[in-house]
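Tutorial handout. Part one gives the primary structure; part two gives the three-dimensional structure as tokens.
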Amino acid sequence: MQALNIVRETSGNAVIADAVSKVHDSVKEGERIVQPLEASKVFPPMVIQMCLIGEETGALDAMLGKVADFFEAEVDEAVEALSSLMEPII
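Part two.
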């Protein structure tokens, strides 16, 4: 619950913050995390699938770590590609 609060307040995106707030409220009511994630239509299917697997196996933290690693690698690749495109201009 505390992690969801932190994500909501530090996301810097009102749409994400609202979706996480709804996830928080649903989890507080005893629901699974996957249903409100899906209903928000904000999160990629891979994130929802990984959360589902994490909930079912009791390893949600590990699955979210893998999701973070995946997106971090994607961002690194995008920055590298952009840098290589800008290099001749500079």
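Part three, for discussion. Residues 51 and 64 are 7 Å apart (CA to CA). The mean pLDDT is 91.
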